[in-house]
Specification:
Helix content is 40%, strand content 16%. With 161 residues, it is of the alpha/beta class.
């Protein structure tokens, strides 16, 4: 029996790391023929990239890094995390420790089974590197691929997919 998994990736602005993770995971599950088993999205903990209710598109260097790997993110615009997302999604995956604290504050729930940091799935306590400050979108991409690969392996081990 096929299972259905809802995943929300979350970072500060929803224009770099979380959309990179959203589209990398969408690509991974599509290549495995499992896209129909997933709902994958991303959101921000802040409103800095949302103006008059309209979110900014994926930051150009993040979009370019994805394109280098054949991944498109057309149409994606920043949206803010809502408390109700906790009930809708099976996993709320933050990119760094500050994201986790903000997710907890915004949803009223503590990290654990549903709220996790991306690289935890790869056995690391490290944060997914923020390219906003470093400009190293290739390093962030590698972190995202590592985390998403480990997340899929986790779901397989747990019998979720």
């Amino acid at each position: 029996m096929k299972r259905y998994v809802r995943v929300l990736f979350i970072c500060h602005g929803n224009i770099c790391r979380s959309p990179m993770a959203e589209f990398v995971l969408k690509d991974m599950v599509s290549r495995r023929g499992m896209a129909d088993q997933f709902e994958i999205a991303s959101a921000a903990t802040s409103t800095e990239e949302i103006w008059n209710g309209v979110g900014n598109p994926v930051y150009p260097p993040a979009r370019e890094e994805l394109a280098k790997h054949g991944i498109r993110c057309d149409g994606k615009r920043a949206v803010q995390l809502k408390a109700a997302d906790y009930d809708h999604y099976d996993y709320l995956i933050g990119m760094d420790s500050m994201n986790i604290r903000n997710i907890e504050r915004m949803t009223g729930h503590r990290s654990g089974d549903k709220i996790r940091k991306l690289l935890e799935f790869a056995g690391s306590t490290a944060d997914c590197r923020d390219p906003w400050y470093s400009g190293a979108f290739d390093e962030t991409y590698r972190d995202v691929v590592t985390g998403c690969t480990a997340f899929l392996e986790y779901l397989e081990r747990e019998g979720r997919i």
